[in-house]
Amino acid sequence: MYLFGWSRRDIRRGFGLLVTALIAVYFLVRVQGILPPFIIAFFLAALLDPTLRHMEAHGRSRVYAIGIIYLAALCIVVALAVFVVPSVVNQFSELSGNLDSYYANLSKSANNFLTQHSRELSRLGIKQHKLDDVIRARSVAIQASITAAIVGASGLVQELLGKVIWLVIIPISGFFFMRDFPAIRTRLIALFPQQHHEMVDKMSREIVDIFSAYLRGLAKIGTMYAATACFIFWLFGVRYALFLGLLAGLFYLIPYVGQVLTSICAGTVAYLMDQHTAMFVWQVPAHSITYALVVVVCIVIANNAFDQIMYPRVVGASVGLSPVVSIFALMSGATLFGVWGMLLATPIAASLQIILTYFFPRLTQELPVDLRDPQPTAESRV
Fold first, then answer.
1. Which H or E element spans position 69?
2. Using CA atoms, how far apart are residues 145 and 178, in angstroms rounded to an integer?
3. Structural domain contains residue 130
4. What does pLDDT average to over the chain?
5. What pLDDT was estimated at residue 13?
6. Shortest CA distance to 52 belongs to which of 29, 73, 68, 32?
7. What is the mean pLDDT of the segment spanning 60-89?
8. Structural domain includes residue 182
C-alpha cells in the first residue's frame, strides 16, 4: 500500500486520468477559437431543457418537441425579416442621412443656450459661446473618444461578419445537444460521488430552471416594453418610432442605465423634429422643448410602471431574490463584467443562493423561537 492507502493500480489510474486531462486541456486551448458556438449551443440546450421536459410530460417525443421549437423560431425569424427588419433598416438609414442637419439644428440651439447663460456657464469653466468652440477646446478627449468608438465599432462589425458560420453551427449542434441533453447531464452527474447524485441532480435542475425562466421572462418583458415604447412614440408622432421603440426594448434590459439612454435618444429626436401633429390634435412647433419633455416624461413613466408592475410578475418571481440582494448582484456584475455582468447577475446570484441552501440547509429553516422578536401583547400596547 502507498500513501493515502492507494494501491499501485490506483496510482496508475490516477496518473492516466491526469495525463488525459492535461491533453484535453491542451487540445481545448489550441482550438479555443471554434469553441464559442458549441458552448452557446450547449447553454441554449440547457435553457430549453425545462420546456422540452414539459412537452415530454404531455406525451410528446423529445425530437418532436425540438422540431416544434425550431419551427416556432423559424416563423419568428421570417416574420421579423418580412415585417420588421425592412422598416427598421429604412428608419435607421433615414436617421443616418439626416445626422448633418440634426447636428446643425442642435448646434444652433446649443449656441443660443451658451450665449444666454454665458455668465452661469463661465463659473463652471465653460467660456465659449459656440458648441464648435466647446468641442474644439476639448478636442483631444473628444477625438480620442470618437476614435476609440469608431475602432471598436469597426472591430465589432468585422468580428460579427467573421462569425456568420455560427448561424449554421449553433442550430445544428444545438439540435443534437437538446436531443442528448438528458444523457449528457446524467454523465456529468455520474462524475460526482454516488452519495451526492440525488443532491446534484436536484440542484442542477433548479439552477437550469432558474436561468431558463429568467431569460424567458427577460425576453418577454423586453418585447412588451418595446411594443409599448413604439406605441408611445407613434402616438406622439416621433420620427423613427419603430427603430426607437426596438432600441428602447434593448435598453430596458440594462438596469438603471437603460432608462437614461432611452430618454436621451427619444428626447433628442423629439426636440429636433420639425413642425408636426402629435396625438392627432396637438400642433407641435419645430424644436419644441415642451414636446421633447412630454415625450421623455411619458417614456419614463412607462419605464417605471414596467419596473414596479410588470417586471416583478414576469421576471422577478422566477429568481426569488430579495431586493437588496438583487441590487447588490447587479452592481457587482456591472463592476466585474460590465453590461453582460448586469444582465446575468440576477440568475447567477439566484443559483449561488440555491447552492448555499443545499450546503447549509439551516438557511431555509424558520427562525428559532428564542431568537425572534417578541410580539407585542394587548397589555403592552396599552
1. helix 62-79
2. 44
3. no
4. 78
5. 74
6. 68
7. 90
8. no
| Predicted pLDDT at 70 | 93
DSSP state of 275: S
Q: What is the pLDDT of residues 28-62, one digit of tens each?
A: 888 777 788 888 888 888 888 888 988 998 888 99
Tell me the C-alpha distance between 306 and 313, whole Å.
Answer: 10
Arithmetic mean of pLDDT, 369-382: 55
Taking the CA atoms of 151, 153, 156 and 160 in sequence, report the sign of the dihedral they define: negative
**If you ran DSSP here, which 8-state letter would residue 129 be given?**
S
Would you give the end-to-end CA distance of the chain in angstroms? 77
Domains: count for the chain: 1
Q: Does 167 fall in a domain? A: no
Q: Is residue 255 a contact partner of residue 340, using CB atoms and an 8 Å limit?
A: no
Range of the domain at 220: 196-357
All three cell numbers of 110, joined, read 446649443
Residue among 378, 358, 59, 4 nearest 205 (CA): 358
Q: Would you say 178 and 48 are in contact if contact means Cβ atoms under 8 Å apart?
A: yes
Evaluate whether residue 217 is within a structural domain: yes
The pTM assigned to this predicted structure is: 0.71
- Is 276 strand, coil or helix? strand
Looking at the predicted structure, is the pLDDT value of residue 68 above 70? yes
